[in-house]
Every structure is written in C-alpha cells, then in structure tokens.
Amino acid sequence: MPGPSSDSNIAMALAAVGTAAIDAGASTVERDVLDLFDALRDRLLRYLLSFSLAPSDSEEIVQETFLALFQHLQRGKSRRNLRGWLFRVAHNLALRKRQQDRRDITASTVTWDDIAVDPAPNPEAQFAASQTHNRLMMVVNALPEQDRRCLFLRAEGLRYREIAGVLDMSLGSVSVSLGRSLARISRAAER
User: Fold this and answer.
1) Comparing 105 with 136, which gets the higher pLDDT?
2) How many domains does the chain fold into?
3) Domain span including residue 24
4) What b/e readout covers 150-173, taking b as 16+ CB neighbours within 10 angstroms?
5) Residue that finishes a domain, picked among 86, 110, 134
6) What percent of the chain shows pLDDT beyond 90?
7) Which of 110, 132, 152 delimits the end of a domain?
8) Residue from 92, 188, 86 nearest 140 by CA
9) Which of 18, 49, 70, 190 has a C-alpha 20 to 30 A away from that of 4?
10) Cβ–Cβ under 8 Å, residues 139 and 185
11) 8 Å CB contact between 172 and 145
C-alpha cells in the first residue's frame, strides 16, 4: 500500500505532466503563429499600405494582428480560415487607425512607387513602363474604395469567399466588384 510520500510523488508527477502539456500546447500555438507570420506578414503589410497609412503604422497593425491571433488561438478558438481571419482583423484595425488619423488631421500618404518597384532594362523601357504604370494606377485610384479593397485582397491571393468575409459583403458583390475593376484596368492597359 503506497504511503503519503508516494501520493505526493504522484501529485508532483501529475503536475509536471500537466505543466508539460500546457507548455507543449503553448509552443504549438507559438509555432503556428510564427509560421503564419512568416507566410503572411508581407501580404498583410502590402494590403495595409493600400489604406494610405504610414509604413510604421502598417507594421504596428501587423504586430497587433498577430498578437490578436496568438490570443485567439491560446483561448482555443476556431482555427478555421486563419488567413481570412488575419486579413479581417488587419482590415478592421486599419480602418480604426485611419479614422484616428483623420481625427488627428495628419494622414500619411504612400504612393504606389513605395510599394512596388519594377526595374526595367533600359531608359526607354522604363519610361514606357512608367507611363503604363501611371495610367493603370490612375484607373485603380479612381475605383470606388470597396472595389479597390476587393482588388488588393484578390492580388494578395484571397479567394472570393475570403474577400467577402474580410469586407463583410456578399459573394456576388465581390464578383461584380472584381469584374468591374478588372474590366476598367483591361481597357486602360489596351490604350
């Protein structure tokens, strides 16, 4: 028959196993968040820059988004469609930041040239590419904000259903928006 010291040894062993299980769970969450951070950080950052936020603000929102993901996963919440979840959280944080900046009346502007640079082999090709780029960016900038958001999210590889979830719109509206935007861009590219 086990004595009192045997019971305390069993209790200590169970506590150690429980702590190890919690640590293993935490490291799995940390590993999952780090894997998603490595895979989606740049995409989220590009999307956030489309809100005309300062790059430092966009970086901060990316950090806040992944912190929210870590807390979400630690609470044992759903792991379903985490990519869409991340874009939705980043989208909402960016809208909040932009509203705050409007209140502060100091919104920073980011040009498309700050986001994407396409080196060309010679000056003539650079000039032609620059003209095309400027024409296309004028078309993109002239799109209604909702259409631009759909376009940027699609460019980041999100599926229509994910875009609908991020922007809180119907699947049909996403399809119409992207079709309309791509038609305008195609017409401008043909000129």
Assistant:
1) 136
2) 2
3) 1-110
4) bbbbbebebebebbbbbbebeeee
5) 110
6) 49
7) 110
8) 188
9) 18
10) yes
11) no
Q: What is the separation of C-alpha 118 from the centre of its chain, rounded to a whole number of angstroms?
A: 23
pTM of the model: 0.57
Q: What is the distance between the alpha carbons of residues 163 and 170, in angstroms, rounded to a whole number?
A: 9
Contact 34, 69 (CB under 8 A): no
* Rounded CA separation 11/135 (Å): 72
Tokens standing for residue 24: 């293993």
Q: DSSP character for 75?
A: T
Instruction: Give per-residue pLDDT as tens, 75-106.
Output: 989 889 999 999 999 999 999 998 887 777 54
- The reply to whether 95 and 187 lie within a common domain is no
At 24, the amino acid letter reads A
100/44 same-domain check? yes
CATH classification at residue 181: 1.10.10.10
* Model confidence band, residue 113 (pLDDT cutoffs 50, 70, 90): low
Contact in structure between 124 and 135 (CB atoms under 8 Å): no
Cα(11)–Cα(2) distance, integer angstroms: 13
Burial tier of 49 (Cβ tally within 10 Å: 0-12, 13-18, 19+)? buried
